[in-house]
Structures are given as C-alpha cells and as structure tokens.
Amino acid sequence: MHETHIIKNIFRYFAQEETRVSQEIKKVCFSLSEFGSITPEHFLEHYRDESRGTKWESIELEVKKIPYGPELAITKIEFK
User: Fold this and answer.
1) What DSSP character marks residue 77?
2) Three-state SS at 73
3) Tens digit of each residue's pLDDT (9 = 90 or more) over 12-44
4) Does domain 2-79 fall into CATH 3.40.50.1820?
5) What is the rounded distance in angstroms from the CA atom of residue 76 to the CA atom of residue 28?
6) Is pLDDT at 3 greater than 80 in this prediction?
7) Displacement of CA 37 from its chain's centroid (Å)
C-alpha cells in the first residue's frame, strides 16, 4: 500500500530529526495539496494505524489542505 510506505518514511525522518536535535517530537504539521490524491481523513487513518504501538502514536498532528504545492509536506515540527 502506497500510504503505508509514506508513513514508514515519515517515521524514519522523525527518528533522524529527534537524533539531530536530541529531543522528542511533540507536534507535527502537514500540508496536503488539493491536487493530490490523499485526503486529510485518509492520511490520518493510515497514520493512526501505522503509529499504533510506536513512540509517535501520541504526538499532536495538524493537517491542512493547501490549494497547490506538493501532495504531502511536513511544514513544521515542534519538540518537547
């Protein structure tokens, strides 16, 4: 499933960022393009499924639709 692969890559990026700043993630903001094929609900459903049992299960997520741009982008990460 395409979304599963995307989420697993996001988790790898989270791990790299936590190592880089030596802090845990508390919030992540995503943007989804109106022209993309992923809806916020669909993305969040897959995120919840894939994050269950991981350290990223309980972080705060914010997902916004944007009129154009990349299909999926991490726009901000907040650390504890």
Assistant:
1) E
2) strand
3) 999 999 999 999 999 999 999 998 888 999 999
4) no
5) 6
6) no
7) 16
